[in-house]
Amino acid sequence: MQDLFQTIVNGLLMGGIYSIASIGLTIIFGTIKIVNFAHGEFIMVGMYFTYLTWSLFGGLDPFIGMAFTLPAMFIFGAACYLFVIEPILMGKKNDASLIFATVGLSLFLQNVALLLFTANYRSVKTVYTGKALEIIGISVSVPRLLAFLVALVLSVLLTLFLQRTFIGKAIRASAQDRQVAMLMGINPRKVFVLTMGIGAMMAGVAGAVVMPFLYVFPSVGISFGLLSFVVAIVGGLGNLKGAFFCGLIIGVTEALGTHYITADSGLLLAFLLLVVVLIFRPEGLCPQIVRKGG
Amino acid sequence: MLMGKGSIANPRVYLPILILALLLLLPFVADPYYLNLFILIFLYAALAGSWNLIGGYGGQMSLGHAVYFGIGAYIPTILAIRFGLTPWLGMVAGIGCSWLISIIMGAICFRLRGHYFAISTIILLEVMRLVFLREVRLTGGGVGLSVPYKGNSLLFFQFLDKTPYFLIALVILILVIHANYRLSRSKTGYQLRAVGQNQEAAEVIGIDSASIKRKVLGLSAILTSLCGTFWVQYMYFIDPDIAFGLSFSTEIALIAIIGGMGTVWGPVLGAFILRPVVEITSATLGGTYAGIHLIVYALILLAVVIFKPEGLIGLFNPVFSRIIQILPGGGSADPATYLESDRSS
User: Fold this and answer.
1) Is residue A51 part of a domain?
2) Residue A36: inside a domain, yes or no?
3) Does any domain span residue A182?
4) What is the model's pTM?
5) Residues of B with CB under 8 A from a CB of A
6) Which of A105, B125, B282, B315 has its C-alpha lying 20 to 30 A from B112's C-alpha?
């Protein structure tokens, strides 16, 4: 029993990170209506930014370093929109060029990272790296707990931002009906730049919080990206609450698979869950769950 | 030539024959380095052409086509190691398996459209990679499998010289081009393009979109599987990261996109432009800067999707028409012939 609780706690902690990773993906899809195939690479870039601030500022804690990395990620996301996405949205857009623009971006970012940082694994050392707390017999890794809490707080802040502020309302309005939003005097270009920036920032949060306990290397984004897709689709693309809860579900699924079957079954189980969801509920699981919850 | 239309005096007929004859002369004059380059160009052109059937004409952006390539590479190798079966029969078995898997993939992925479809193909590719990594006893896991060495043997699809590989790759490429050509001119091809452009509208006029997509995906899978078998017999080695790798899988689609998807010659043009670029950048800069050729790849891709979404074939068509006009007998070219671009629908 203890074993089961331990696994679930580990899964929930990792799931929180998947949530924040896929919230970035889902907000970009919801508003701009594109799937960012480079999202995993955005997380990778976030991890390298964190690594850089840590090594440049003499071991600055990644959580404090967010003061630098998150604005940098915002600018990075906005630049990606202006230089890659917008030219395609403005031109003759079709599914192929939209998909392959971000696929090309992911290929580009991955190999530029390889060029700049080589394939070596890099990590960030903090005072709490490797520390663990003991709560009613369950050991909780301190960096993972911190990562989970920060991810949780920032998801809540993002939700509040979208619900309470004018800009947030403009983003939600554009997501619901672009034409009507434009008629209400909302500039879609500003909204899209902002959304892409926020999406990249959320990827940056995920990248920053995992650095105390994970390594960064140029292809680290692939598995992160795939898991974000799984979470975002299972949660219903464009649905923030769905993404949040499904992140936790996928985290726990992966942890249970890894613990009770074999080390590589966790990921496989998460993917199979997606396949089952795609077959029976292509619109995603979570609308139902959220409704039940109130 | 394949149309049985037009006389031999027409450049649109004799030019392809001339090019083919020149290619057949190549093994006698070129050194192994260039022969290898051409073999890879043919192989990538054939892969991109196979993808083009469902991705280009059907608009189904599969990013998981390496699944069929991997099956085509693994099945003959496993059968050869286990039962000493010749790869020629193994190839047939691989084709059968790929076709079956295409039915299953189709049943899952074709429930989805556009971006969702693309994501689901990536996920299934990753599932295959993980499964092949796990089944260590059958597939050798991450270590991979080596083809049992038999020396120079036609029966075992192994040759010490590159010339037979060159000829076989050329035959596969011609097969793929022929399939593209036939599809682009057939009723199924027109129906598939209609489904790709607007599925609801196509269904309203009575097109059975599910059955057409399934049929063409099956054909595409079979041809991709063929390339997989060729690859493993040429390289003597396969592992899950090569066979089911995501970047390889996207590369197949990229070549078709850059060349011009939904055209017979776009994927071929893509391979003839990109493979040499990859070779040159890897040879000159690859030693000092790892991954540089993929950066070049990505930049070309971004430039094409932003500035020339219909692909580079759009730039080459006017040049090609001009060449045809200059060649003897070109004044009276029959418009409905073999090399004409078929993008206009």
Assistant:
1) yes
2) yes
3) yes
4) 0.88
5) 59, 61, 63, 108, 111-112, 114-116, 118-120, 122-124, 126-127, 130-131, 133-134, 246-247, 250, 253-254, 257, 261, 289-292, 294-295, 297-299, 301-302, 305-306, 309
6) A105
